[in-house]
Amino acid sequence: MKMQVAYYYRTTHRDHGYEKYVEPGRKAFRRRYGKRTLEEHFFWDEASGVDANRKAFRQLIEEIQAGHVRVVVTRDATMIARDWQQFFEFMEACDKAGVPVICINEDGDAGKQYECVKRFVKEYFGREKVL
Questions:
Q1: What's the rounded Cα separation, in Å, for the pair 10 and 47?
Q2: Where does the Resolvase/invertase-type recombinase catalytic domain lie (predicted)?
């Protein structure tokens, strides 16, 4: 059975195209899961940091919620969303669907950052939901 992997890349206008991140994304996936047969889907938004209108980002969330994605690979956590609210919306959708997020730049691991914030919210505000 093929594993459904979604690659999400938001690039800036200076950093045209996502192609240069495809192979590093595949390597990051293989580091965690080994060699597998994949069904790959690519979601790409070319937008500045101030532009919150991201069509591919919204489409990816819908695919995750529909159960069509098992793993998301991205460049790093800072490139997932425009702001914290979008980031948490995305991570909550992944968390609810059991979809891990692998970052090429491991220092910017989205899952680790999300878990850290969830612990903070629970400890200081006494609630489970971040938003």
A1: 7
A2: 5-130
CA atoms within 13 A on the CB side of 114: 27
Give me 44's structure tokens: 């790409």
CA atoms within 13 A on the CB side of 94: 25
Q: What is the pLDDT of residue 21?
A: 85
Cα(4)–Cα(69) distance, rounded to whole angstroms? Answer: 5
Q: Which domains does the chain have, with CATH numbers?
A: 3-125 (3.40.50.1390)
- Dist CA 69 CA 130 (whole Å): 23
* Cα–Cα dist 48/85, whole Å: 17
What pLDDT shows up at residue 20? 83
Residue 51 reports pLDDT greater than 80 = no
| Higher per-residue pLDDT: 104 or 114 | 104
pLDDT at 106 over 80: no
Task: Say which residue the tokens 């992944």 belong to.
Answer: 94
How far apart are the C-alpha atoms of 46 and 25, rounded to whole Å? 18
For residue 36, how many other CB atoms are within 10 A of its CB?
Answer: 12
